[in-house]
Amino acid sequence: MAAHPDPTAMPTPFQRVVADLRAHLWRPGLVIEEIPSPQRVAPYAVAVSADLTIRDQELGSGRLVILHDPDGIDAWQGTFRVVAYAKGAMDPEMVTDTMLADVGWSWLLEALGSHQAAYVAPSGNVACTWSRSFGGLQEQPSQAEMEIRASWTPRLDLDGGGIEAHLDAFAELLCATCGIPPLPDGVVMMTPLRQRSQER
After folding, report:
1. Which end of the chain has fewer beta carbons closer than 10 Å to its terminal beta carbon, N or C?
2. How many CB atoms lie within 10 A of CB 63?
3. Which H helix or E strand runs over 197?
């Protein structure tokens, strides 16, 4: 099954999701770019990459994919599925905490809850890694990263409305993975989506 790039070939709910994704205003520091979507997972899909940069320092990256099958998929418990990936650097000393993966998963649930993003059937995994260089690379500092891979079924309106809350939850998850707190109330999002097709 190939994902359809032609908007006129998309079901109305998916057209709404794509339009809302492309018009979404993201929090400062996030660079969002539309990328090729998976071709065989669902009949319709749209995807973006995310890079988090604060004061010219790259802190983390991620991807967000929104899948749609008008016939629904039993495992999804719905017709849409959000797939998220977030990776961020962290203090190497934290990697030894055996509860760190549980904390990472709680960040996802808290992000969805704080933005009132209704969902069902969440699943995923959290990986915490630590690396140390030797020999000719021994001068490089030790590195630690957390990777969160997750998916959930968003509860959207019949016309596809409501994806914005899930987009904000993804942004908050990526920032949490990089140690950046949520935006205070009243702070306006400023970063628009960049589409590769528009930059060529």
Report:
1. C
2. 17
3. helix 196-199
